[in-house]
Each structure stands twice: as C-alpha cells, then as structure tokens.
Amino acid sequence: MKIVIKNKSELPIYEQIEQQMKAQILDGTIAEEEQLPSIRQLARDLKISVITTTRAYNDLADEGFIISVAGKGYFTAPRNNELLRERMLFEMEDGLEKAVTNGRNAGLSDEDIIAALKKFMEG
Questions:
Q1: Are 36 and 66 in contact (CB under 8 A)?
Q2: Strand pairing partners for 73?
Q3: pLDDT digits 0-9 by tens, 37-91
Q4: What does 6-72 look like in DSSP terms, one character per residue?
Q5: Can you tell me the distance from the alpha carbon of 16 to that of 39, in angstroms, rounded to the nearest whole number?
Q6: Can you tell me whether residue 80 is helix, strand or coil?
Q7: Four-point Cα dihedral 112, 114, 119, 120, nearest 10
Q8: How far is CA 2 from CA 15, 19, 78, 103, in A?
Q9: CA distance between the termini of the chain
C-alpha cells in the first residue's frame, strides 16, 4: 500500500488517505482481505496524527471498504461485501456519467460514445 500526502492539496489529509486507499482497493493493488497497517503504524509511516488516520479508517469502514477485526486489526473487505459492491457500482456509474458528459461535450454522438466504450472494454 502506497499513500502520498500532498500538503498543497485542497483535500484534508484524511480524505487524501481515503481516496488513495479506495482506489487501491478497487483496482486490486490492495488485495481482498489483506491486513492493513495499524492506525498507529500508518500515522507513524506518514508522519501524521493518529486522529487523522483513525478518521480515515473509520470512514473507510463506514463505506464498506475495510473491516475491523477485534484484536487483529483492519482488513480490506471481502469482494462479496454488499456495501463494497454497491460502492463499486456507484463508482462505475459515476465514471460512466462523466465519460458520457465528456463525450457529448466533445461533440460525439451516443453511438460514438458506445463504440468507444466497447472498444475500451475489448482491450
């Protein structure tokens, strides 16, 4: 797991952590059911407050990306987790909406956008 904190980012640090962890979970960089660093270890590694990493982990758990196992720590949620599945569907729909909007703004027809999507899915 690689997290890069940018001091000049408009996003609060906890949101930077959340976004990067979500992206890595969704793209498989962080494997299903993989144990994550402890809250204290992540805070130490990133040289930030434990409160900040706690907020990020709590938010990720609330959204279904990670789970807490008493006495063992935090793990990425299994892929069959309904909350994670719903979040992945939301992310997909959000991405498709942005792609359609961008395609239309570029002057593409719906058929051109669908053809582009099919081509993207093939390769």
A1: yes
A2: 69
A3: 999 999 999 999 999 999 999 999 998 899 999 999 999 988 776 767 777 788 8
A4: -TT-SS-HHHHHHHHHHHHHHTTSSPTTPBPPPHHHHHHHHT--HHHHHHHHHHHHHTTSEEEETTT
A5: 15
A6: coil
A7: 110
A8: 15, 12, 20, 32
A9: 27
Give me the DSSP letters along 32-50.
TTPBPPPHHHHHHHHT--H
Predicted TM-score of the model (pTM)? 0.69
| Residue listed under structure tokens 């994550």 | 36
Written as six digits, the tokens of 73 are 């720590």
DSSP H or E run through 2:
none
Amino acid identity, residue 23?
A
Q: Are 59 and 12 in contact (CB under 8 A)?
A: no
